[in-house]
Write a structure and sequence with these properties.
- The structure holds two protein chains of two kinds.
- Chain A is 41% helix and 13% strand.
- Chain A is α/β, with parallel strands linked by helices.
- Chain A has a five-stranded mixed sheet with strand order 6-5-11-8-9, with helices on one face. In chain A, strands 3-2-1-4 form a four-stranded parallel sheet, with helices on both faces.
- In chain A, helix 6 crosses helix 9.
- The longest helix of chain A has 21 residues.
- By secondary structure, chain B is α+β, with helices and mostly antiparallel strands.
- In chain B, 45% of the residues lie in helices and 11% in strands.
- Chain B has seven helices and four strands; from the N terminus they run ααααβααβββα.
- In chain B, strand 3 and strand 4 form a beta hairpin.
- The two termini of chain B are 28 Å apart.
- The chains are: A alpha/beta, B alpha+beta.
- The interface between A and B is large, with 62 and 47 residues.
- Bound molecules: flavin mononucleotide, iron/sulfur cluster and FE2/S2 (inorganic) cluster.
- Iron/sulfur cluster binds next to helix 14 and helix 16 of chain A.
- FE2/S2 (inorganic) cluster (FES) binds next to helix 5 of chain B.
Chain lengths: 437, 160
Amino acid sequence: MLYNEPSPLETRVLSFRFGLPNSATLDTYLATRGYEAFRKAAGMKPEEIIEQVKISNLRGRGGAGFPTGMKWSFVPRTSPKPKYIVVNADESEPGTCKDRVLMENDPHQLIEGCLIAGLAVDAHAGYIYIRGEYRYLIEVMDKAIAEAYEKGWLGKNIQGTGFDFDLYTHSGAGAYECGEESALLESLEGKRGIPRIRPPFPAVVGAFQCPTVLNNVETYCAVPAILRDGGAAFAALGVPKAGGTKMTCLTGHVNKPGVYELRLGFPVKQMIEEVGGGIRQGRKLKAFIPGGSSCPVLTAKEVEGATMDYDSMAQRKSMLGSGGVIIMDEETCMVKAALRIMRFYAHESCGWCIPCREGTTWLRKILTRFHAGGGTRSDIDLIGDLSRNMLGRTFCPLGDAAAMPTLSIVEKFRGEFEDHLNGKPCPFERAGEMVTA
Amino acid sequence: MTFSPQLEARFDKLLKSYPPGRQRSAMIPMLMYAQDELGSVTDELVDEVARRVGVTPLQVNEVLSYYSMLHRKPLGKYHVQVCTNISCLLCDGDKLWEHACKKLGIGHKEVTADGQISLEEVECMGACSWAPAIQVNYDFEHFVTPEKLDQILDGLRKKA
Ligand SMILES: Cc1cc2nc3c(=O)[nH]c(=O)nc-3n(C[C@H](O)[C@H](O)[C@H](O)COP(=O)(O)O)c2cc1C
Ligand code: SF4
Ligand code: FES
């Protein structure tokens, strides 16, 4: 099911089956070039598969943007240990809701992506780690997996190719940190989601201490198109160093929020104005988060001329991230936004390392007091100092994820913090309520 | 301990899903599915899952305390979860949360006196583009206004 109208400005490569009758069934999949890429890949050498993925310039869609072909080439294919494919379907980065529509509307595309990854690294089993809240998607995936087994697209000697592959779903149980790859692997092994020390990276020591390819749902979903139409065609859709499209979640103060598949390099202005139908109530843009709440926040001025790709966002000292675009209009209280973002990280910090556990807790406390009107001028610098002291000093990137948006907000919107001083009520709240939509 | 045939089948499948000697992997999914049937993670369940996956009850307890969806106390028959994280907040998710509390006369992680409805303020649940969003047990509701929430809650009351 789709929860928003598609936009004519989309480039539908991963989402082209969305909206077809019974798009989640094997019949529809097979009728629309489904599993064609697997057949092709089964006749190729593993190096040739990885080469096509490299040519495609596909970069990981889970947030960090690591080149996928390179990641796959790190797996020691000749190791005597079994190798595993792990799908990160934990989707918990605030602002992000795209893996959900990919699994719901086209589960076989994900299965085919896993099969091709299996061929590429000689893996014969895969696990889809799905966040516990997405129970209905576990059912959708289980149904598609059962159908694939029944018709010989999973299991032993798939379609007579001699390739065996088993695929399983695995339910999470509520923990943002379990989206971090090494914490996810711990959780998959039935433990608390505490991250592992790296190196070794999962490619060498991953699931069950064996070599593992771990990618985001959308990354695997891009693989069938790459093998089917060639890596070069996929690369050509994007920008020079990043190929393809990005499932982009427009959220916040736009008229037409929704998940849209846009070419990498899509202009931000056109995305907000035309895809998103502009800012609500004709207001102006105040702040922009490119890909989930872990990214540094950009001002309206900073995003002028920006495009939705890794380099354009890096030039602006932010990140493309997960595709969760958060749009805030001029009536948004940035202190309140910083507070809500920090409440999340304080709640989700796994508590393993001190800068993150203590830093997020203190920042939450200070921001709570500040927003309520109990802040002092020195608190403003303290918020910045605490954030800076977390950056780069934590055991996993969650600490940075908490520090980066906070630091960018306090630096770029300092005036709004000053407006909250001396017990003044939040200037954006009328009668105790936030003025938004 | 005995479970429904469906849950037993689910357990069997889970225990066969992982490599030999790695049955501990089934623990968290087993707890999740069993909790749905029992209403909470009981001591008896902890012992049973520990036995089936081959760890001690202490190890199960240690793991389950980490995960926010696993709970030792029963929730309401209908667990209403309101997201107030950033994308929902920008679409008045915080007001929706306050409205839910007022309407039901309960707060965060509390249950109505009749045990039918419980409330929880939750973090992002992957519905950000259709905000503000809530989940009733595992069912999503998108673009929820206070009026729509009233209707949903009244509907639950009638079903209860
Ligand atoms: C705190 C934290 C949470 C994360 N959550 C997710 C997530 O929900 N989904 C995801 O795919 N990647 C998530 N990641 C990124 C993963 O660690 C990893 O980089 C990614 O799954 C690799 O796949 P990719 O290369 O296809 O992007 C998270 C990282 C951190 C530090
Ligand atoms: S940075 Fe935070 S989430 Fe990561 S290990 Fe440290 S305490 Fe845990
Ligand atoms: S912020 Fe509410 S569902 Fe994502």
